[in-house]
Amino acid sequence: MRQLPRRIRRRLRDAMLAPRFGAIVAINTALPMVALTFDDGPHPEYTPRLIELFSRYGARATHFLVGASAKARPDLVNALVDAGHVVASHGYAHLSLVRLGARERRDEIQRGVDALLPRRSDLFRPPFGHYDLATARTVRALGLRCVMWSSHIRDWEPSTVSELRARLERALKPGAIVLLHEALFSVTANNQQDREPLLEAVEAVLAANADKVRFGTIDELLAQGTPELRIVEKRGEDSFIDAQEPGTVQRALGDILLP
User: Fold this and answer.
1) What's the number of domains the chain is made of?
2) 256 with 69: CB under 8 angstroms?
3) Angstrom distance (rounded) from CA 175 to CA 161
4) Which residues participate in catalysis according to the annotation?
5) Is residue 16 part of a domain?
6) Rounded Cα gap, residues 254 and 210, in angstroms
7) Who's near 76: CB < 8 A, 6+ residues apart?
8) 182: domain range?
9) CATH code for the domain of 180
10) β-strands 33-41, 23-28: how paired?
């Protein structure tokens, strides 16, 4: 195997590892069904508005919640589940897991899961999308399934409603998992923290596609097809992590303390 080109060796390695340690990046289905997923909540203003908006159009979503925020507002967690949405873990303190030691990483993931009890699912999404095989092994050992995405619309960047709507429309392919943010738990100086443009874009897309696309949860999408699994190894730049500042969630909840 060492005689094969490095690119081919990597593909063979990933193919062997994906069934056990691969992250779900999409669902293989021909049905016009999409999973919209929201990270970094819950948020005291935007989460209730999303619940009302999705209810109006008979749609559901999957929310990857930061444990510290969920612990501070269990009423919002309950409201999401009661409205038919799925709540899943996005870690406890929104840390880059690939930068933690084995024990710290396991504790950070477990705390995030425990903060959602008893409403949690077995789905998990790592903060910043930072992931590697060591993290994948921890996630599997804890009985969780990692969910990444097939598309994102860069909703953390300053954008107009029309720009966000156009990007979201392009992402609506059968079996797609779309990354969105109902809040920004941590940000850099150039991030767009106001979620109002996103909410307007999501509403426009739901209204325009109500009779063409079914917007369901990850679990509902999985019931209609098979998961596409991919080995994800992403660390990101240290300078990006160092530049993070408190986002809208901490300010809205009164600067959550993260022991």
Assistant:
1) 1
2) yes
3) 24
4) 39, 181
5) no
6) 37
7) 41, 42, 43, 44, 47, 48, 70
8) 35-252
9) 3.20.20.370
10) unpaired
Least confident of 1-15, 59-73, 143-157: 1-15
Dig out the tokens for 100 from the structure: 């933690």
Over 90: is that where the pLDDT of 7 sits? no
Q: What is the DSSP letter of 22?
A: P
Cis peptide before 74 (omega within 30 of 0): no
Average pLDDT score over residue span 39-58:
97
Instruction: Kindly give the pairing relationship between strand 151-152 and strand 145-146.
Output: unpaired
Indicate the residue type of 184: L
Token pair recorded at residue 169:
């429309």
Q: Is residue 181 part of a domain?
A: yes
From CA 156, how far away is CA 154, in angstroms rounded? 5
Q: Which residues contact 14 (CB under 8 A, 6 or more apart)?
A: 22, 230, 231
Q: Tell me, what's the pLDDT at 246? A: 86
pLDDT at 13: 85
Measured between alpha carbons, how far is 122 from 211 in angstroms, rounded to an integer? 30
Contact 195, 181 (CB under 8 A): yes
For residue 150, give the 3-state DSSP assignment: coil
Scan for tokens 């995030």, then name that residue: 112
**Single-letter residue type at 16:** M
